[in-house]
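Notes from the 1:1 (GR / supervisor)

We went over the backlog. Supervisor wanted to see one worked example end to end before approving the batch request, so GR pasted a single chain during the call. The sequence is below; no edits were made to it. Supervisor asked that the structure be written out right there so they could see what the output format looks like.
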Amino acid sequence: MNKTLLTLAIALTFPLTAAAFSGGHDPDSDAHHGQRIERLTKELKLTDEQKSQVQAIFKEQHDKAKALHEETHSKLSKVLSPEQLAKLEDLKKQRREHWKHQKGLEKPE
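Structure output shown during the call:
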């Protein structure tokens, strides 16, 4: 039962942690967010006021995702052994590399 619960927790958490951020500041993420705002501004013909409001909404959502990521990591660190945490970090790293490769952001090794 505990093993199943742990597996489920990791399976549900993994996409959140991979999507939130890699643990540091990612300049590619900033560029992506800037492009997203500019694309929406152009396609939706946002006013300057709307653009500012959309940016604020996206920033708020990002901050919430970051907080959730940190909370999840904190909870997992209380449940998993140091070896399991290290393995989880390796899995997240592999997932990020796979995602970057899929998105064409970096060349495969």
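Supervisor's comment: The radius of gyration is 17 Å.
Batch request approved.
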